[in-house]
Amino acid sequence: MHKLRAISLICAGMFAGALASVGIQAYAEKNSSTLPLQEIRQFTSVFNAVKDYYVDEVEDRQLLQSAVEGMVSGLDPHSSYLDVDGFKDMNEATQGSFGGLGIEVTKDAAGVRVISPIDDTPAARAGIRAGDIITRIDGEATAELSLTDAVKLMRGEPKTKIRLEVARKGEMKPITFNLERAVIKTQSVKMQKLADNLGYIRITQFQERTAEDLAARLVELEKSGNLKGLVLDLRNDPGGLLQAAIGVSAAFLPHNADIVSTKGRAPQSDYTFKAIESDYRAGNAVKALAQLPSVVKTVPMVVLINSSSASASEIVAGALQDHKRATLMGDRSFGKGSVQTILPMSFGDKAVAVKLTTARYYTPSGRSIQARGIAPDIYVDDTPEGNYPTFQIREADLAHHLKNQEGDLADDLPYDDTNAEKAPDYMYLFGDEKDWQLQQAMAYLKGKPVVTSKYRGQPQSVVKKLRAEERAAKKNDASKSETRSDAKTDK
């Protein structure tokens, strides 16, 4: 069995709610000639200085724990040490049930940044948005907290209260949310039967049952006659299990088609995952996908993505785009093109783990998504009035992010207009009758015109020209208005 595939591969960040024993002595003996002795002396000197002179007494265990956490978290934004509670939360999250608020977060200099609220959770129902920055948790400032500590503050017993203060672009004052923690049981796959015999499937996260549940929804749509065209919605999907992403891709692609390849420093990290049973073996996915009607392989498809579509959702979007199996619509994705491996460790009765970045992943055509993201075939704004203003950042903006070997997202790439000053007066939920991007996806499937984004997807030079023309037009209109007003006064 392939060593990397034998370990759980995670393609997501840390949820807010959310190794076999290592022979350290044997490792030290094996690598004694390469151990950095000067740096080890430096560590012990600092350790002893803290023990001797810090204002309060600190236990050795606490200092060593902090050292381990810092060593791993300093590698990149997605590597972390999982203590007993963190490891338990990770297992529960990938299985679809965990406690907390239901948001995926990352660290930001100003606090804790929301990557994505998870559908049907306390955070989503309260109106927390992707891009919001959580500045205080129950009155405690988050700017100096580690991500792990901030997540622990947000966790708690179900039905207990918590207060978040949030900074949001376009709002002059912080927004306060009073929430009640809950056991988060996410429904990974949702379905709707649309007009004109079209179908809609939304994947909120990639979990153990995702491919299996997707297959069941596709069968249901086919039986009802709602599979003349399909909209697959991956917006605000932060990722999840790699095997689930492979299973979802395999549902729509030919047998043995390349889906994603991984390349890392260790030889066992190099592997090409295909649309074959051994690569999506989670749960009952093999049996479920084998029973899919043949129309699933050919049904016209639109895949919706946005700046909060990350990791596993980018794998699916990239595979379907490279194989020309679907048209991608929406906005450029987040750009998390790295694979995290969960390495369990047992120390006595304690089960902990290290979540470690072990490889970059590449689309079937060889594109690296890391720090660049997937560009849609058709850019469409959030609403008919434009995009919501947001503090949203992508992978390329995160501190010490893993670099794209071909270069990160650059100024000459298509423009992202996230600098709006006023939010559109237009609110909707993904999949409802006011969902503008879904409306455009349906129009595309029916062969009707699509209202594309005015700015997004355009080079910087074109955007500057368009904006200059708009400013000139507004100035001209204002001048004409003043002239008319003066003429009325003279009369």
UniProtKB/TrEMBL annotation:
Transmembrane segments: none annotated. Residues 454-491 are annotated as: Disordered. GO terms for molecular function: endopeptidase activity; serine-type peptidase activity. Residues 1-20 form the signal peptide. PROSITE patterns: PDZ. SMART domains: PDZ, TSPc. One of its GO terms (cellular component) is outer membrane-bounded periplasmic space. Keywords: Hydrolase, Protease, Serine protease, Signal. Residues 87-155 form the PDZ domain. Coiled coil: none annotated. GO terms for biological process: proteolysis; signal transduction. Residues 466-491 have a biased composition (Basic and acidic residues). Belongs to the peptidase S41A family. PANTHER family: CARBOXY-TERMINAL PROCESSING PROTEASE CTPA (PTHR32060:SF30), TAIL-SPECIFIC PROTEASE (PTHR32060). This is Peptidase S41. It comes from Sutterella megalosphaeroides. The lineage of its organism: Bacteria, Pseudomonadati, Pseudomonadota, Betaproteobacteria, Burkholderiales. The gene is ctpA.
